[in-house]
Amino acid sequence: MAVPHPWPRKNSPSAILRAAQLTFQTLDGDTQQVSSEEIWRIRATSTSDEPPGAIVIDYAFDRVYVKESLASVVEKVGGVRPLKKFTLPAGRPVYIAAAKVTGVTRAIPGQHHPNAHAIIVSREGQTQVRETREAISEALVK
Predict the structure, then answer these.
(1) Engineered SS bond to 107: which of 46, 113, 116, 122, CB 3.0-4.6 Å?
(2) How far apart are alpha carbons 136 and 75 in whole angstroms?
């Protein structure tokens, strides 16, 4: 006799309905809804081509810039899915959805930032971080 799973399959209608739709305030004062299941990275803006003082939420193969504080966004997303905090090469925090990580590779000197020790890989993209591969792997299983 098959024992039913206590949770729905990832692609079942009930699982899709249970994926939290989170609402964030965009820079223009509007709102944007994002499925919690699609969020893979959260960080503050840092490059000259990004709006200063904003928070970047990377989801699926897209991103949204929001007015909310990093702490507020992390709390909202972290309430519905596990996030792990790492350090970008410049020393700022980045939060990665643990379930989205597909691998961890080494940073290659001359190709990656000099302060990067590892690359966190997901289907949607890569993130260079200061932590070692071992520290990342350990953090992801906690």
Answers:
(1) 116
(2) 21
